[in-house]
Sequence to fold (146 residues):
Amino acid sequence: MLDFSAYVSLFAAALGAATILPMQSEPVLVGLLLTGKFSVAALLAVASVGNTLGSIVNWFLGCGIERFRDRRWFPVGEKALERSSRWYRKYGKWTLLLSWMPLFGDALTVVAGVLREPLLPFTILVFIAKTGRYVVLTLVTLQFFG
Fold:
């Protein structure tokens, strides 16, 4: 039961970290890796799927942004949104390979929804980016601490 809870916690942290919530999933993944009790492949899969689903939440948020754009609580500022939109228009869907980056990456996933990037290519590119980040983090963690 404890193993299941660890995977659920990692999934929730990864999902939340990819959304506009101020969360981080990397410490959770590193902590679980360092215990040596969990399958590395399973941890990577759970973190990657959770983080990708969080970005899909952002995509849907971006699709409906016009309704909420002027709300005080909306987490993406007008300047950041415009800057990300310009970047996205200039470089296209390939910018989603940068969706792993803190702060900027979350804004890109929202902008992809605003600009109506088709969901399937969005999901594939974001999954590649998010998984790549977790693979690098895992390799570094296991190399230095494992």
Summary: Residues 119-145 form the longest helix (27 residues). The two ends are 25 Å apart (CA to CA).
